[in-house]
Design goal:
alpha+beta, 2 helices
């Protein structure tokens, strides 16, 4: 079992204590930085004053990005399956 450490992340000037594995530490700190950067972008570019609204927009952006990646992965899998079927058909035809 990997050792866990205590860290604090800050999101929009609020501190959140976490226990994470050593391997996750840098990823989580980077994620917090990204959230703060995106929230700042919404505040500065869309005149959003309420931090909760900024964070909701950041969450929506991440969720749609994740959903988009899932759909791209599914499309890629379908394409691979079609190519495998084509190869199988060619092999069957060649062996007949």
């Amino acid at each position: 079992m990997e050792e866990e450490i205590s860290i604090k992340i800050n999101i929009e000037d609020r501190s959140y204590p976490l226990r994470v594995s050593v391997a996750e530490k840098n990823m989580i700190l980077q994620a917090a930085r990204t959230i703060n950067e995106k929230s700042k972008f919404y505040r500065e570019n869309f005149s959003v004053k309420d931090l909760q609204d900024c964070l909701a927009m950041v969450a929506l952006e991440f969720a749609t990005s994740k959903s988009s990646n899932v759909y791209e992965e599914i499309d890629g899998q379908k394409e691979i399956e079609e190519k495998i079927q084509d190869i199988q058909s060619l092999l069957i035809e060649a062996l007949s």
